[in-house]
Amino acid sequence: FDDVAASGTLFGPFTPVDRLYKGMRKYFPGEVPKEAFDDKMMALMKKALNAVYITKYDHLKNFGLCVGGSIFWARPEELGIEVMLAGNSAIEGPIAWSTGSTEKLALEHAMERWIPTWLLVRGRRVAEIPPAPKVMCLYFPQYHQFEENDRFWGTGFTEWTLLRETDPLEIKHPLDSSKGGLGWYDLENVHVRQKQEQLAKAHGVHGFVYYHYWFSGPQAPKHHKVMYKVLEAMLADGKPDMPFMLSWANEPWTRTWTGGNSSGEIMLSQTYDQKDWEEHFQYLCRFFDHPNYIRHEGAPVLALYRIELMGKILGPMLTVWRQLAVQHGLSGLHVINTLGNFVFTGTNGPADTSGLDGAFHFWPGIRASWPIPRSECASSEDFPLPNETTQYWGSYAGFDRRPRAPNETALFKVGVNSFARGLKKSFTKMAQESRSVVPNFFFHNAWNEWNEQAVLEPDTLNGFGKLD
């Protein structure tokens, strides 16, 4: 391509307004943005083109292009400095560069039309590109002592308790800090979370998706919160200092580690009591109000882990939450589903997605639901689900639950080279013109799910391989 503009900013006089970036649509009241190509502006365009091109162009209404915002990339050799100077001198007379914000007829407004149009009439390729993928890593906020683990599994129990008992030649363990890793850390330690931030930023991770645990019902704590210390510590000390969002892990806790109930023993219930909806939302606002919280068009982004468990409760609850969001001064909520096998295994019938704004590809669940080659580890297309029209792609670093279930046979290994190839394929597909998902979130499972062996953190078998 000889001219590239950000997705939704490149348009002609007959481009449908609904194809434009949302922030630009307000300037064009009709179905097409003809106002951007009025007679006065087009006269300046013709003057500039005729100054540098032999053929006289009197039919620019059919060829005119504009890049809203004047931000684009063009090959210098296709423009030529002498051409730029000639065009500039041709239109310098009646207008000039502005020194601040202006509505129309500053020199930059002519240039944002002249350059892409000049390339187009010469038969050059002009295109849009989507935003760069924003890699969001799912983050498990455990690895510290808390009340419920002490009560259910024994004093001092953490995920490390199980992992330490596994064979380090077969199962990944955390790389020692003496070798640049994080070791067997405690997430209540601010220095550990600061090091996580440094590693993530140095390797292109945009932000973290923290699992959030809130329970209702007879077995739930009175304040509803579980495994909350790390998230609240992040609010207090600012580490990791990077974009983040929450994913409500809304399944009950049972002895099975999966949220199912085959053992008959529920340790923490999840009843979604209506009387708790407002209290839950007010707690979430502590995070929504943080300057690092990820928003889409002003609305905080919130993921839900298992919507099929909510049944008919989901729609009314989201309606209440969106009303509360507006009362709180937010533009709304951008709520997304975790797209995986749980959608097909729910006990409450098909999951209701009508109140959701999208879904992200949760690869451990996707692997169990679709006939995907074992070599695949990242998304390269949307899945054929009519109710999931906005799908955020993702990847995983493997899946192996043997630290929790030693006899587990469903093992999915992803090597360093396979991981790199999968990401390259996915990111390349995300850059195609036909894909128009904004923002371009990319959800990776996971940053630190050690007992599912889904980790990017440095480990004893791969070192920094998957981070690099």
UniProtKB/TrEMBL annotation:
Q: Domain of life here? A: Eukaryota
Entries under PANTHER family matching the protein:
GLYCOSYLTRANSFERASE (PTHR41244:SF1), RHAMNAN SYNTHESIS F (PTHR41244)
Q: What is this protein called?
A: Uncharacterized protein
